[in-house]
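Support request, priority: normal
Reporter: lab tech (M.K.)
Component: structure prediction queue

Hi team, I submitted a job for D-2-hydroxyacid dehydrogenase family protein from Vineibacter terrae yesterday, and the status page still shows it as pending. I've pasted the exact input below so you can check whether something in the sequence is tripping the parser. The sequence length should be 333 residues. Please let me know if I need to resubmit or if it's stuck on your end.
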Amino acid sequence: MPVTDPVKLAILDDYQKLALGYADWDKARARGVEITAFDHHLGTLDQAAAVLAPFDAVLLMRERQAMPKALIDRLPNLKFMILTGARAPSLDLAACTARGIPVSNTGTGPSQSSTSELAWTLLMDAARHVTRADRLVRAGGWHGGLEMGTILAGRRLGILGLGKLGAKMAHYAKAFDMEVVAWSQNLTPEKAREGGATLVSKDELLSTSDVITIHLVLSDRTRGLIGAPELARMKKGAVLVNSSRGPIVNEAALIEALRTRHLGAAGLDVYDIEPLPPGHPLTTLDNVVLTPHLGYVADSIFRTFYRDSLENLLAWLDGKPIRVINPEAMGKG
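Reply from support: The job had stalled in the queue. We restarted it manually and it finished. Here are the results:
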């Protein structure tokens, strides 16, 4: 059945205030949809529940706002959800299904290139202290206080996770004349060669790589994969890059390794808590480059996200949802 009652749509976590410009939302307004875009994180579960209670439909920007069962169950009007991207482990899909709430996802655009390019940018910045040098010059300084940079040519890059993103990193590294090794729990020598790397053990990768970059999916197997013992095995002065998910690395151990200069530098796009709280210890360190989870934040990707989101909304209003990732929810509402 087409949806005919007035619909309230919440577009979440539109931090850059761009969502309303990436699709022709007047098509939805013409159908009586009231659209509210939130340009800030909604905060705690209680705060999010209070804000979202009136809404019939919610558009999630990937994992920025977690949607556990405890929150979904407190949204009495929720009938439809749109997820930008293919999946989000922070969304309790089973809870949506139990409530009869269909969830439609979107295409991802060139997100693999976007994320891997950002990871390489972080790697270069951390190796050559570009951000620190920029701040120094702006403050009237020159070379004073800067540590020596690391030339990448001839160095070893260790890639944890040689999927599509990791393989792109291997390709970039070859262009910089780096030696590339890789490890993951299911990686074979053949797959490693196909991805442009040599398979080694995790211990060898940690102890011999000059730069390590993480491209693993967060799961029970990878959560805390890099803790204090693993960081201690890394070469003194090595560079660590994480553009995957924060909890893969033990944050407290990472901070200590950076503080003591056992790690020379790090480039981070992801954190245990996002947005990163003001005054977080990572923000006090001068040997870490921090970006606010920008891996997928690019024009062409957002155009795909919001174009598909509008299509999903209009299809749901017509009673014919598309791109539904929990079809078993259909007919329960």
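The longest helix spans residues 299-317. The chain has twelve helices and twelve strands. Let us know if anything else looks off. Ticket resolved.
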